[in-house]
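Question: what's this shape?

___
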Amino acid sequence: MSAYYNEIEPYAAQWLRNLIAKGLIADGEVDTRSIVDVHPDDLRGFTQAHFFAGIGGWSLAARLAGWPDERPLWTGSAPCQPFSVAGKGQAQADERHLWPVFFELIRACRPAVLMGEQVAAAVGKDWLDGVCSDLESIGYACGATVVPACAVDAPHRRDRLWFVADAEVNGLQERKRENRQQDAGSRSESGLDLAGTNAVEWAIGADGKARRVKPGIRLLAHGVPARVGRLRAYGNAIVPQVAAEVIGAYMEARQ
């Protein structure tokens, strides 16, 4: 087995097993323990490790980008609730802020390449500065950008912060800070021209919030089997096509 998947949600964990069985993501082992209970020794022998794995979006993205299953890679999309505008706004004080736990595993295992994702609102709450400072303190070079899902023609905005950390730093050291707070309307490292992504049709509701004119999640309909579990899994998932662009941009930069 080449990959380790850590996912505490039982429904998503079974989804991962099903995807592995179908050969749609890298072959591997699914660990349903909290990341708090994972020790560095548990990760020995795995080529890839995907934390907060959800339904395997990062593994699928790696394949879409042409990243081989046997090439080392760590990924982590830490819980967004502490930094989401829909959350309580407790940020680093929230008990679901698990980056410090993830970082201790990174420090102990020293993966060659680390990639991750977080809600864009985390930029303004010092999450990214903390992540980059931690990683740079142990020798990683970091780069980050905000890319919305609609940049790959998905029918929703879904702004997300994407970051890459390289332990070897060759060719990346000089860029480790300059893209840290890049605006979603600028040109990303992936080569995607994000200008005009605001052209997706939106409507302003009575509460002042913007929403797409046509909802894209049909699983809200009554009668769809396991709709609640599916909706939760989709809601916590990354958009693999965007992650694939991030991975592809890194691969191009390292050539």
